[in-house]
Each structure stands twice: as structure tokens, then as C-alpha cells.
Amino acid sequence: MSLAQKIGRMRRTDAASGILLVSPTALYALLLLAAPLATIVVFSFWTQDYLTIDRSWTLANYRVAVTEPIYGQLMLRSLWISGSVTVATVLLAFPIAYFVSFHVDPARKSLWIFLITIPFWTSYLIRVFLWKVILGYNGVLNSTLLGLGIIDAPLTFILYNANAVVITLAHAFAPFAILPIFVALEKIDRSLLEASRDLGENRVTTFLRVTLPLAMPGVVAAVLIVFIPTIGDYVTPRLVGGPEGLMIANMIQTQFLKLNNAPMGATLAVLAMLIVTVVSLVFVALNRRFLRRQQ
Amino acid sequence: MRGGWLKIYALAYLVFLYAPIALLPVFAFNDGTIIAFPLRGFTFQWFAELGRIEALHGAVLNSLMIAVTTAILATVLGICAARSAARYDYPGKRGVMGFIMLPLVLPEIIVAVSLLVVLLQLGLSLGAWTVILGHVLICTPFSIAILNSAFQNLDRSLEEAAVDLGETPWSTFRLITLPLVMPGIISSLLISFTISLDEFIIAFFLTGTEPTLPVYLWGQLRFPQQIPVVMALGTILVALSIILLTTAEYFRRRGVARAGGKDTGGFL
């Protein structure tokens, strides 16, 4: 069989049509995602002196990143903030997803989901800025609480620190946590819950032993989809974080745009991605073990 | 009432979700330059001022152009990937699709700086088109997520019937498939448009001398006297987003109904 015939035959198969069809999108992702990510990794092994880039391979940037305390500190703080955001967002989101899945009339579920997603689609910058307005010294929250006589002096621990970043991000990422959990809860066969009740479990134990383990894939997805992007958030720490709430993304931005040290910025970006990946993998592995023990 | 305490919690949560947007019009119509309570009086002043800022108009036009182009490109790429995922099976499909969906979870700053480095290395100048490149990358996964359900709800026997009745694959796609997934396509266009219009981080890194609307807004947030105008602009933007999203949701639901599927809710 000649090559042309082979190709002709390939074209008629399903697999080939599928590959052909997906190729524009895959190619786009390859050129504009894979190639740039690879470039960043390469860059992290180079150095820059003012405007000239020294292309000899070196671990100098990594050495600086590990030895200079500021980078380690920012990285730890970013992990801590992202971790807190993730815990807060997922814990707050679970009851909502549970409510919509189990207590809302099926015909009105999509309306609830729609209501939950709307705030997410409105201008991110303005939303973050409004949290500054809400949490500020003369802000909405403080003036309301003062007016109601609940507090005597404005609360100061809620703006320009890590708490403000956590509150704002927990708001911004709410739908990202609610939707995966909701989808997982929707998939649960309701007769399993009835069976559990028939077998003498009460509502709490049914929830702990049937609903929660079955909802776990959704919770894991929610954790990852909140944790990974928040570590790279740049706007929220800048607007509401104050000096105490700055995160690694702010340092990456400074390295690239202000200090003109792209290789150092690249190194920090690579390290941040590596750390996030490792933490995520450990989390997924721990969760697998937990679920296996449950069975 | 079903749910009891959970229902109260859910309503409180909705208040938390909507608190920032609800405050937007309050300050946009407030006759005072300081964004704090107590309110002073009602005014249209800030909206009127919007009409007088030249730089803002440029930014709006730039953003609209970028958002429209992004929406079209991302949706075309989304159609290719979603159709191929729903209709065909090939080795490595999960890996390829996972990779295409990656920008959904990748921190935007990583996407932004990596694109920036490549563009600068290639000696290309930044501008609207570089923002479009970045936006298409992050909008395509959303487009695929929407279109996936549209293509998966599609009954394959309809297409087979068309082929049996003598249509070519292309005319089948045009006459049968496309009309059935059209609501999904419109929904994807609107969502991509909204994401691009609103996106800040990538635009901040990749925009050249002409800022997009969010980049312009970012600059204004530093000047306290500009804040009321920003609030007015924000009010318009939020109103616009809600209209667009409601339209997108309407089309998505119609698409689900048209394909005879069950509505499972949500875009994502």
C-alpha cells in the first residue's frame, strides 16, 4: 500500500477525523501555552544584567531564591494565604452546594446556580476595590457596626493585611468551589441515602458515611481549582493586602516590569508552579488514601 | 419551607456574594467624592463625566475590539475541540483535552509572564493583538466547557439520518448539527466576550501603549478623586454583564431544551 493510500485510509477513520478536528485548538495551546511555559523554564536558568541577557546555564537564580529570605517568606505567605482561602471557600461553599442539590426544587436549581455565578462574571477589579470600601476604616462594615452599637471603635484587622486578602479571594472564587461540589452531589444516587436510613443510620451518620465520601471528588476538584489560581493572584494582594499581604505574584510582576530581571521572575514563577503542583499532588494522594480507608 | 437553617445560610451567602455589586450603584449616584457612608445626595454627575474622558473612550473601543475578536476565535477553537471530544475517539484524547483545558486552573500571572517573555524574545511589539492571543488562550477552555454539553446532548442518529438521505458531511454539519448547537455557540460567544472584556492580569502585561478598559481602570484606582467616576463606569459594566449573561443563559437553556436534554444548570 502506498503512503497516499495509507493517508487516504487514515482520513476515513474516526480517530483521524478526531485528531484533525482537535488539531487547530491543540496547536494553538501548544504554541501559546506549552512553548511559552518551556521558555519560562529555560529563562529561569539564565541571568540578566540590566538589559543584556546572559544565556549561560546557571542555577544562580535558584540559589538567590532559596537563600534570600524575602522570597522564601513571600512563598510561604502565599501558600498560607492560598491555603486559608481554599479552606474558607470550600467550607463556606459546601453547604450552599448541598442546599441547592438536596433542598431546592429541581426546576429552580439552574436559577440558583445562575444567581451564584453572576457576581463572578462582573468586573474583577471593581469587585476587589469594593471590598476595600466595605472593609476599610471608614468602610461600610465598620460604619454599620458602629451605628448599630456593636463595636466602639472601627475594626482594623480586616483591611491591609492577609485577612482582607482571604475574605476577598473567598468571595471571588466562590462559584469555582460551589460548582464542582454541586455537580458531585447531583450525581449521588438518592436511593443510597434511603438505603442508609433504612439500615439504621441517622441523618448525621448518613451524611458522614455516604454523602460526604461520594461528594469527595467534587470537593477535591474545588480545592484544586481554588488553591492553584489563588497562589498567582496579583490584584487582590495589591489592592487590599497592604505590605503584610503581598504575595509571590506581586514579586514576579515586580521582577518582570520594574526590576527588569525577567530570569529572576521566571525562576520565581517556576518555583511557584512546582510548589503548587507538589502540594496539589500530595493533597490528591492523601485524599485517595483517606477514601480507600473509608471503604 | 424546605432546608430550614440551610436556606437561611444560603440567603446570607447570597448577600455576601452580592454585597460588593450592590454597593456599586449606591456610590455611583452618591453626591460626594469620598466613598464612605453616610451618603450625601443623589447625582448623575459621575455618569455625565464619563462622557468627557477621552482616554476612557479609547480604552472602551480597544477593549470592545479585543473582546469581539477573542470571542470569535475562542469559540471557533472551542467548536473544533468540543466537537472532536464529543464525536470521536482517538488515542491520547484525555491528555490533549486536559492540556487544552489547562489555562482554566493555571494562575493567570504564569500565562501572562510566559507569553510576555516569548513575545519580547521574538522582538514583537505589544499591542491589542498580543492581548487577543492571551485572551483566546484563557477563553477557549470556557468555550469548550459550554460547547461540550451542547455537542454531547446532540442525538447522533439525526446526523446519520441526514447522511443516509444523501447529505455530504459538510452539509449535514451545516444543516443539522450547527442549528442544534447554535444556542451553545451564542452562549460561548457571550461568555468569552465577557471574560475578555473583564480580564486584567494578562491585559496588564501584554497591552502596549493603548490600555484596555480594566488596565485603564487600574490606573484610575490610584487617584481618589476619580473613584466616583470609576463607580459609575462599574455600574454600567455590571449592568451590561448581567444583560449579556442573562442572554447567554437564555440561549444555553433553549439549547438544552432543543436537544431534548435535561437541564443540569450552570455554565461550567
Question: What are its keywords?
Answer:
heterodimer, A: 295 residues, mainly alpha, MetI-like fold, two-stranded antiparallel sheet, 14 helices, 2 strands, globular, B: 268 residues
Structure description:
The complex is a heterodimer of chains A (295) and B (268). Chain A is mostly helical. Chain A has one domain (68-294): MetI-like fold. Chain A is built from 14 helices and two strands. Chain A has a two-stranded antiparallel ribbon with strand order 1-2. In chain A, 43% of the residues are buried. Chain B has a single domain, classed as MetI-like (MetI-like fold), CATH 1.10.3720.10. Chain B is built from eleven helices and no strands. Chain B has helices at 5-28, 45-50, 54-87, 93-101, 108-121, 128-152, 156-164, 169-198, 201-206, 213-220, 227-258. Chain B starts with a helix and ends in a 10-residue tail after the last helix. The interface between A and B is large, with 90 and 91 residues.
